[in-house]
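Fold these two proteins, one after the other.
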Amino acid sequence: MSGKDLVIGIDCSTTASKAVVWDRTGKAVATGRRTYGLDHVRSGWVEQNAADWWTATAAALAEAAAQVGGERIAAIAITHQRETFACLDAEGEAIRPGITWMDIRATAEVEAFGTGEVHRITGKPPNPTPAWYKLLWLKKHEPETLRKTAHVVDVAAYLVNKLTGVWATSWACADPLGLVDLQRFDYDDGLLASVGLTRAQVGRLLAPGEVAGGLSAAVAAAVGIPAGVPVVVGAGDGQSAGLGCNVTRPGRAYLNIGTGTVSGVYADRYSHGTAYRTMGGPVPGTYILETFIGGGTQNVVWFVEQLAGLTASDLKGGETPEQHLEKLAAAIPAGSEKLLCLPYWTGAMTPYWDGHARGAFVGLSGLHGKAHMYRAILEAIALEEKLLTDGVEAATGQRLDEIVLLGGGSRSPLWCQIIADVLGRTVKLAREQESTALGAGIHAAAAAGLHGSVREAADAMTGVQKTYLPDAAAHARYATIFEAYRSIYPGLKETFRLMTEKMS
């Protein structure tokens, strides 16, 4: 086959860069992938070598293009780990390691500068994740770094410059940094000035799905894709996953059960509140209202590794520990026989924004075993998601009828059914598990003219593979359980604070 009929979606995530080649129907036809590391400098400090983003991306691009022929590539688009940023010198080289979204060193800055006005401008409730607070930390603790800085870049802006020589990003990529006025889709000059930056030091903001520039001749020769191929700015990985699930209209949400659990709903007008954080949407001019649970598959992995105590004799026929525990947990009734779990292994995000909060099992008795605890963890994520979904619906007046599920947790049929039963909503599995990279592919396909618009591309390139319908009796049972569940955190809030202050 000849002609430019394929696009590439780059997903430069926390631990790897993937380049996935998509056709115009949303089928993945080739993939390249390279991993890189994280540096846990000290407790709460998590950094990364910015140069690794480019080294991995270039290798992944070359690997993917070689499988299909670079001459078939019509456009390349980028999605990436959000909030992570790097400070670069005038030559585009990193002055210090990049600071990742996971880094929580700026807690004092959040307490000092996290005002309601900053929340109103940015859509982000005060918390250590946005880069603005970490830039304030650098201003205080590493002023020489900022004096040397010519460019502050999100991951997309860094890659765009490497690919094209242009300093540009999209507002849906830069917005998570906490420097963008989301009502205007432009930088806020006051927020920039507060950290000693000017507009000359941040990338030009484009609409998500807009072409930033053409692939440079030097990069083209290295990766095997023709020079001049359009390089498109997409959206941060959360919004891009939503686009890959076709969350482009009211009434549908995506639920990504990964290490943490992220959910997002579409909105066509700006709002802000503590029940969610507001992000620039992947469809230009729209928004994603996002909730976040600091738990998900990491809770399951922790339980399997630390408490399950499974031996080789427990597992038969190639069964994994998770499959074994799921089989046992499926035989236990809803509510895990009066055992509840609070899934805040790494603190509470929406709607409480409490970094002191931690996980808990409530109601343990001699009746309970490992299968009860395993099921209670699955139920905890579902019950917390109901708390968040109810909050978003109350804040927006918008009912969600359908949840599109993706991420590692979606591979568990029991978990999927529990989510449907707790929420009382139809749950559908995304057809493509690489929905984040697919979102970038959708942006590329629309920019290349393979489809008429971002929404048309999403309609043509996405789909679902399986549907879970809520069981009426189970939903009624979980409604009662939820009344007990939502009282746990308020009852333990002061305990968590005292543990932090008195037991450190």
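Now the second one:
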Amino acid sequence: MAIKYKHKCARCRKNYVVITYRTRYPLCYDCQKGEMVGEIKDPKMKKMFNIPEKFYRESTFLRSIKINYLRFGKLSERQIETFKKAVKTMKDEEKS
């Protein structure tokens, strides 16, 4: 498990973001919220992205996948699989 620490958002410089050494450009949820707005027409994707806002707030990975889908209109099978795995892990952690 990677070491996590807090760093100020690179865009607004107000909010702190929990990051690891791999994070190159830390962005807070408030700065990325505008990029996550868009219409999802595919019913499978709509169902996949219909998760609690709390999960998007906590995970930069989940936000980036949704933004990439809205930007490019598709995802690879591996991205979809990893997204679902991450959501399942977060739901399991929330239960226990």
